[in-house]
Amino acid sequence: xxxxxxxxxxxxxxxxxxxxxxxxxxxxxxxxxxxxxxxxxxxxxxxxxxxxxxxxxxxxxxxxxxxxxxxxxxxxxxxxxxxxxxxxxxxxxxxxxxxxxxxxxxxxxxxxxxxxxxxxxxxxxxxxxxxxxxxxxxxxxxxxxxxxxxxxxxxxxxxxxxxxxxxxxxxxxxxxxxxxxxxxxxxxxxxxxxxxxxxxxxxxxxxxxxxxxxxxxxxxxxxxxxxxxxxxxxxxxxxxxxxxxxxxxxxxxxxxxxxxxxxxxxxxxxxxxxxxxxxxxxxxxxxxxxxxxxxxxxxxxxxxxxxxxxxxxxxxxxxxxxxxxxxxxxxxxxxxxxxxxxxxxxxxxxxxxxxxxxxxxxxxxxxxxxxxxxxxxxxxxxxxxxxxxxxxxxxxxxxxxxxxxxxxxxxx
Length: 412
What we know:
73% helix, 1% strand
């Protein structure tokens, strides 16, 4: 009679015997580091792209003026990426954001330049128009049941046409100085070689980062969850703190903190809380993960979808204002390709094609990768046609990596 087959892993003996305690400990730590590298892969990719183009451009990429320009030039795309990643997490897509941005920019030109309204009233009215655009599209998607792809494709045509109607195929400018500050303004405290306000904000950001990371690590340990080795944890904190320090030093040595960066920081903070600490954010993830199951659990999916697109319309309006302010011009060609850049930022930042996966921080980093690619290739004199090829390949590889990870982990 043959011996019974072992039924547990403890009963199986490998030919080479068990690993000794030192080898086991090393293997466990290595697995933790590799897992953490996987979680932070998008950040590592950003660092790699920055290092590569810094070398190729002989350091021009990391000059203070260029770093400041990176923020200002890509601010509107990062604003769109925040709203787009939320839409994608819920399993939708929005192809209309570029046209909405152009339409709202045109309306703001009429308000602030042609009608002579105060700049702040023009901004409020423009944001209101963006919200109404979101109400319009959200109604068809959430309550009529037309797929978001079709509704926003129609919206892309409708609002591009309305932008041309408002502008009359002409440009509108120039805008009041306060309005232009949305896209070109800086905050500083005086004529210093290094702006002390910017340096202080950077130091505060580093302190908040360290405190938050330490508290998160202790919380995970308290509940018995896995944490990375202390050495790797310290290395991460040092590297990220050094990056923040260099970034703020660069801004401090140029003109100070861009107003666009302040807007982005507020949006990232608010929407990070919404997605991670509110019922609405949890519902978005639940709907993207499994819409039918979310409905059975009592989530009002139609209401969530509706407010998602109201939010997207408002953020598209804000992006249109920032872009118009940066150019000091409302033109018929504004917003061209914005939707593709925002969608690319979300997917490069780790959002899943099927929905249910993605983060605000990931979308921001994805947008920065696109911005660095655009900026670096422009400095190198690479033509726009090859820039499009490179960005398309990066997007394809990012989605392919997501599909590969899902298949490896047993997902569909």
